[in-house]
Structures are given as C-alpha cells and as structure tokens.
Write a structure and sequence with these properties.
Helix content is 37%, strand content 15%. By secondary structure, it is α/β, with parallel strands linked by helices. It has two domains: 5-23 and 76-195, HAD superfamily/HAD-like (Rossmann fold), CATH 3.40.50; 25-73, no CATH class. A six-stranded parallel β-sheet has the order 3-2-1-4-5-6. Helix 4 packs parallel to helix 8 and helix 6 (137-144) packs across helix 7. The protein is globular, with a radius of gyration of 16 Å. 26% of the residues are buried. Bound molecules: magnesium ion (MG). Magnesium ion binds next to loops.
Length: 197
C-alpha cells in the first residue's frame, strides 16, 4: 500500500464501503425485484445476501456486476454527513477502504468514490479476492495496521472485534444482535465522530 508521506504518522482506520458509506442494498433490491418479479426488502436481509436470494457467491457477484451497469446504481446515496465527518477525522486518521467485493469491481467503485467523495484518495482492498483463503477483513486490518474498522456487516465486525480491532458497527436493519467488548454500535455517522476525539 502506497501512502503519501504526509499521512504516514496518522492512525489508520478501515472503512467498509457498501451499506456503510452509501446505501447499496436498497437500490440493489429494487433492481433485483424488478428483474425477477420478487418482493425482497431490507427487512428480509440479515447480511447473508447469497443465502437469502438462494444464489452462489459467484452468481451474486454476477448480479452485482449487472446492477452496477444499470440506472439503479447510478446515484447510490451517501449516508448523512459521511463526507463531512470523514473530512474532520482525516486530520488525524488515515482511511483505508476494505470491501468484501472482489477486484473486478475496482473501476466502478473508484469512479463512484471520485464522484461521491472527491476530496479523498483512498487505498482500496478487495477481500472478495480471498474467499475461502486467508485474507478476511480482520487479517487485512492487522496486516496494514488499522486500529479500528467501520462496518455494516455484523459478521465482519465481530471477526475484527475478535482479532482485537475496535469495530464500529453502523446500525442498519440487517445487522441486529451481536455483542463484543470491542464492538460499538452507533446509530448514525454523527456518533462515529465522538468515538475518535
Ligand atoms: Mg458493507
């Protein structure tokens, strides 16, 4: 990972992308329901999307890639105040993005980040390249020295918490339950700011 020298002294925080920075699953369900005449909504979702839709991970990736080429995906809305809060925190912290997607999504994600968060130039890690092998988000966090992660996926947040990484779980319909001494649930991004004084 190449980090500009001016950021080297900063503490590192890992950031998930979909469902954490911007709404992804709402627009995805809209796309999916229209394509297949189904009726899924966010209240059906519990972080295990492939299981819910009865797809293999590869089939789900295929659906994601198709979704990414449609109008549903053109303007995924950032959650409130994400940009302002990241900007404030970035005076002291350096953010590294870690998505569970694989790197076939790299260009689309980069493009969207450029449009949505133009003031940042984040390094991006794709833990989806390591499915079934070493390289989960907890391992990536340890490898690059992130002391905390901000996530919407309960499983990822718990595995990072188990590895001693401070896990901030942004409250969503799909990530209820789960407790750990290293896990903090926040109701909104505004609360994230208070955790990193
Ligand atoms: Mg996510």
């Amino acid at each position: 990972m190449e980090i500009d020298e001016k950021h080297l002294w900063k503490k590192r925080i890992a950031l998930d992308i979909d469902g954490t920075l911007w709404d992804f699953y709402g627009p995805f369900f809209e796309f999916y329901n229209n394509k297949y005449g189904t009726n899924y909504d966010l209240t059906d979702f519990n972080c295990e999307l492939a299981k819910l839709l009865n797809l293999t991970q590869e089939q789900l990736n295929e659906e994601f890639r198709e979704f990414e080429g449609t109008a549903y995906c053109e303007d995924l809305p950032l959650y409130p105040n994400v940009s302002e809060i990241l900007l404030k925190l970035s005076q002291k912290y350096f953010f590294v993005l870690i998505t569970a997607k694989d790197s076939t999504h790299r260009e689309v994600i980069r493009e969207r980040l450029k449009r949505k968060l133009p003031k940042f130039d984040f390094p991006i890690y794709f833990s989806g390249d390591y499915v079934g092998a070493a390289g989960g988000k907890d391992e990536i966090c340890r490898e690059i020295g992130c002391e905390a992660i901000i996530e919407d996926n309960l499983g990822n947040a718990l595995s990072c918490a188990n590895s001693g990484i401070k896990s901030i779980l942004v409250n969503r319909y799909w990530n209820q339950g789960g407790e750990h001494e290293n896990l903090v649930r926040v109701m909104s991004w505004d609360e994230v700011l208070d955790l990193f004084p």
